[in-house]
Model the fold of this input.
Amino acid sequence: MLRTILTFVQVFSAIGVVGLVLLQRGKGADAGAGFGAGASGTVFGARGARTGLSRMTAVLAAIFMINSLCLTYLFQRDAKVAPTSILDKAAAGAAAPATAPAAPPVDANAVPVAPAPVEPAPEKP
Done:
């Protein structure tokens, strides 16, 4: 249940990060880009203008990274609990003893029938 919820969060955060990155403009498209190469840092400071899209991208990226760590922990914990491989299963199947065929089912309503007496065979001289 928890793994399923975390997987959905992982998928939606990945799609959100990709979508937000595609919606943002590049560095060269800032308002200060018209002043020449590298001059955009002088208009808005060294970091440039932080928009709501860039903040939301950072939040979704953090959610994605933390969720990735949680999913990795869950899968590694489950892998340590029951390590099985195809070879282990094949060895267990070959070592299993053969079972006898099952007896036919008994009808509870059946009337018991006594076996017919067997006459001894006549002796030959």
Summary: The radius of gyration is 38 Å. The longest helix spans residues 52-81.
